[in-house]
Amino acid sequence: MGGILPALGFAITIMVIGKKSLLPWFIGGFFAVLYLKVDIMAMAIFGTCVAFLIKGLAKNEGAA
């Protein structure tokens, strides 16, 4: 399992870099981990929460 997780992260990063709409999120997360010394796992949990929040708001916006 320890070898698969970094490979999965690398694959997701390569996919994200190609999408211009996700680039600010990628750069923001990178600098938060690098300069603010935020733990990578904490950033992953925070990113997941933000993703669910954005998806939920977009779903509610489409229904209204």
From TrEMBL:
<keyword id="KW-0813">Transport</keyword>
<keyword id="KW-0472">Membrane</keyword>
<protein>
    <submittedName>
        <fullName>PTS system protein</fullName>
    </submittedName>
</protein>
<dbReference type="Pfam" id="PF03609">
    <property type="entry name" value="EII-Sor"/>
</dbReference>
<keyword id="KW-1003">Cell membrane</keyword>
<keyword id="KW-0812">Transmembrane</keyword>
<keyword id="KW-1133">Transmembrane helix</keyword>
<dbReference type="GO" id="GO:0009401">
    <property type="term" value="P:phosphoenolpyruvate-dependent sugar phosphotransferase system"/>
</dbReference>
<dbReference type="InterPro" id="IPR004700">
    <property type="entry name" value="PTS_IIC_man"/>
</dbReference>
<keyword id="KW-0762">Sugar transport</keyword>
<dbReference type="GO" id="GO:0005886">
    <property type="term" value="C:plasma membrane"/>
</dbReference>
<keyword id="KW-0598">Phosphotransferase system</keyword>
<feature type="transmembrane region" description="Helical">
    <location>
        <begin position="34"/>
        <end position="54"/>
    </location>
</feature>
